[in-house]
Design brief:
Residues 258-299 form a coiled coil. The chain has helices at residues 19-29, 59-68, 93-98, 102-120, 138-144, 189-192, 219-233, 253-317, 321-324, 334-409, 411-443, and strands spanning 11-17, 50-53, 84-90, 126-132, 152-157, 160-166, 180-187, 196-197, 216-217. It is an alpha+beta fold and 444 residues long.
């Protein structure tokens, strides 16, 4: 399956079924239910589902007939044992979408069914094999603006191993004791999927641990290897093997979905923490800006009365000095009074007042700048904080939506849809770059 990296991976999962669970598997696979929990199933498309082996009756009835005909043996098997298995073969939806959809999926799963026959040990042990083509990939359909369906194959089978029945000591003919009496195909899930020894690639001998015990490869890993190898040999070289080191073999479907969901939820919580940290920093920046603005306003309020007095004084003494001088008295000539006393004094006063007036204009300009800065930056910070809070709320809602999607459709479907969208975007970018390069070459 796709893990968000744009790589198409084969997936083969083995489900172990008891008799009570076999009926539910039949109802789901053969579309016998009137309604389904999975609302992405489109009943109008169920006629497009493809049977590579159609059951000639109920699953249980077929099993009992096989037992009656001696094809299989249930000798020594408990009633509540895993008597049946179901293989689910899968590749992400984007893989089939990029290769043409339905017709390509039919051919792919026809070849996958041939692999299933080899894995199971013979077609006679398969109860049903059906490709589902009626399950809509809702997220991918919405993202691409067209219906996209998730194609996958269900193969229900009987797990059997060859077992030799030998003559016991109670046999009258003692020469036969210990010899093979008959060979039967024994129903046994545990032996069918027993772990296999890992062989040395050079010598072909079984590998052993430091203590001399054989190194075993888990049955789930063997299944993945076999399915991947069969599909590669069938010519599907653009898919990769399912991820190694997985414990999916021992998980039920629900457990597997919960595990994937918890991992994704942890990622969302990390993203949420990062956003909250950014919000905290923005709040600190906002507080510092508001503090600086208040300090500037306080200074301006203190300066305002002084500035008004300075403006009045400057306006009063900014006229020509000669207009401000009084008339000379009778003891002194007008010229002497104006040149020696009044004019020099008034020139000094006007010089000082004009200097103060220039300072006043400078302060006014700074005040206007601060006012504009306050009027622009503080609302911007408030708006930015509101946007971040809104984004955080949307992220939290997205996390809840993801939780709902995983419960309804499974984390695999969600992850593969994201990968498909990324791949589509990358393909569009590549086409755009290619067109630009051709245009540049033509222009030269």
């Amino acid at each position: 399956m796709a893990r968000g990296d744009g790589i198409h991976r084969t997936s083969a999962r083995n489900m172990r079924l008891t008799t009570p669970k076999l009926k539910n598997a039949q109802q789901h696979n053969e579309r016998e239910k009137e309604s389904y929990v999975n609302q992405d199933i489109v009943p109008e498309r169920s006629h497009l589902n493809v049977h590579f082996k159609k059951p000639n009756g109920g699953y249980l009835e077929q099993f009992e007939q096989m037992e009656a005909d001696g094809i299989i043996s249930t000798r020594g098997i408990k009633v509540d044992a895993f008597r049946y298995g179901e293989l689910i073969f899968d590749v992400n939806s984007a893989y089939f979408f990029n290769h043409g959809g339905y017709d390509f999926a039919k051919q792919f799963y026809h070849d996958a069914y041939q692999a299933a026959i080899k894995i199971v040990g013979g077609e006679q042990y398969i109860l049903s094999a059906v490709m589902h083509a009626d399950e809509r990939n809702r997220a991918m359909s919405k993202a691409l603006g067209q219906d996209v369906y998730h194609y996958h194959l269900h193969v229900v089978y009987v797990p059997v191993v060859e077992k030799q029945i030998r003559w016991s000591k109670r046999c009258k003919d003692k020469s036969l004791v210990g010899k093979v009496k008959e060979t039967v195909m024994q129903v046994s899930m545990s032996k069918k999927w027993a772990s296999k020894p890992v062989l040395d690639e050079v010598t072909g001998e079984p590998l052993k641990t430091a203590k001399g015990k054989p190194v075993l490869k888990k049955s789930y890993s063997v299944l993945q290897d076999d399915f991947f190898q069969y599909m590669r040999e069938a010519g599907y070289t653009d898919v990769e093997r399912g991820e190694r080191g997985s414990s999916e073999e021992h998980l039920t479907v629900t457990q597997f979905k919960v595990e994937r969901e918890q991992a994704r939820l942890a990622e969302l919580q990390t993203e949420k923490s990062e956003v909250q940290a950014e919000i905290g920093q923005l709040q600190v920046n906002k507080a510092e800006a508001e503090k600086a603005t208040k300090e500037a306003q306080t200074e301006l309020r203190l300066l305002a009365p002084k500035l008004k007095s300075m403006e009045k004084l400057a306006a009063e003494y900014s006229s020509d000095p000669e207009d401000l001088l009084p008339l000379p008295d009778r003891m002194e000539s007008a010229k002497s009074y104006r040149e020696k006393k009044s004019k020099p004094l008034l020139e000094k006063i006007v010089k000082v007042v004009r200097s103060v007036y220039r300072a006043y204009l400078d302060v006014c300009q700074k005040f206007e700048l601060l006012q504009r800065k306050y009027d622009t930056e503080v609302p911007h910070l408030k708006k930015q904080l509101a946007e971040v809070r809104n984004e955080n709320a949307k992220l939290q809602e997205t996390a809840r939506d993801y939780h709902r999607l995983c419960r309804a459709y499974g984390p695999e479907r969600v992850a593969e849809t994201v990968a498909a969208i990324k791949q589509q975007e990358q393909a569009e970018k590549e086409r755009s770059r290619s067109q630009k390069r051709r245009h540049d070459r033509d222009a030269r």
